[in-house]
């Protein structure tokens, strides 16, 4: 069998079932009968001698082959949408849409500034936003659920279709409560960190990966007492003196100014990291101008002292 045996009908039906994991819902979405949906899936499976779905406990699940095909069909459908947009608005920006995925720090503290500046220049382009941890952003980009990814730290992925570009440098600083015994010290030695309770992000977070790499590089083993999946919770926990943390300077500017948190100066350890822009080659005009806007204006977005 060849790729010519796979029609657009096959692609649209399979993609919808992969998203809903429900034949009946897909039939309603596509305005066809459930038997037609089922037959289309069987047709693909028979043509290529593979199994796309399995049913367990009356629920439908994608097989490994089904998951891989779903990634491909998502890209095909997004390209078809881009083609339609291109034909409708050829070489203009009267209409357009771009979806940005950002890791938590960037999404909460930097992305609003980026979107505001972009919308002032391109008011007719719709911007959709997804915020998650670094791994989630990479997976969304791989599935073509987002067009541009903004993450903290170099992405850990072997996907050669994802292109990375540095767009902004950020400093990670150690912070504690004003009541913590480190708050009154000018500098703290690396060895002193071993006896402290650390509050950090969850596994999969770009910030956590960078912190753990730096600790390993300096031979420091720390006690991770609490894990949170958002920085606001970490800041609150630190301010309550539950432990110390390492957070982006971007995040703690207001708390430092209000004396709600104190910066800890660690002797012999300063942590900088890059924010990265991720993209694939499949970009329409609206997405391209968004990428250019971010790269050209990055320095203006960062909140400095």
Q: What structural class is derived from the secondary structure elements?
A: alpha/beta
Principal-axes geometry comes out as elongated
Residue share in helix:
40-55%
Overall pLDDT, averaged?
89
What share of the residues does DSSP label as strand, in percent? 15-25%
Using the CA coordinates, give the radius of gyration.
24 Å
Please count the beta strands (DSSP E, at least 2 residues each): 11
CATH topology of the largest domain: D-Maltodextrin-Binding Protein, domain 2
From the N-terminal CA to the C-terminal CA, the straight-line distance is: 62 Å
Description of the structure:
- With 305 residues, the protein is an alpha/beta fold.
- It folds into three domains: 3-84, Winged helix-like DNA-binding domain superfamily/Winged helix DNA-binding domain (Arc Repressor Mutant, subunit A, Orthogonal Bundle); 90-168 and 274-300, Periplasmic binding protein-like II (D-Maltodextrin-Binding Protein, domain 2, 3-Layer(aba) Sandwich); 171-271, D-Maltodextrin-Binding Protein, domain 2.
- The protein is 44% helix and 23% strand.
- It has eleven helices and eleven strands.
- It has helices at residues 8-20, 23-30, 34-48, 64-88, 104-109, 111-121, 134-142, 206-217, 231-239, 249-257, 285-301, and strands spanning 53-56, 59-62, 96-103, 125-132, 148-152, 163-176, 197-201, 223-228, 245-248, 262-264, 271-279.
- Strands 3, 4, 5, 6, 9, 10 and 11 form a seven-stranded mixed beta sheet that branches.
- Strand 7, helix 8 (206-217) and strand 8 (223-228) form a beta-alpha-beta unit.
- Helix 1 (8-20) packs across helix 2 (23-30) and helix 2 (23-30) packs across helix 3.
- The radius of gyration is 24 Å and the shape is elongated.
- The termini are far apart.
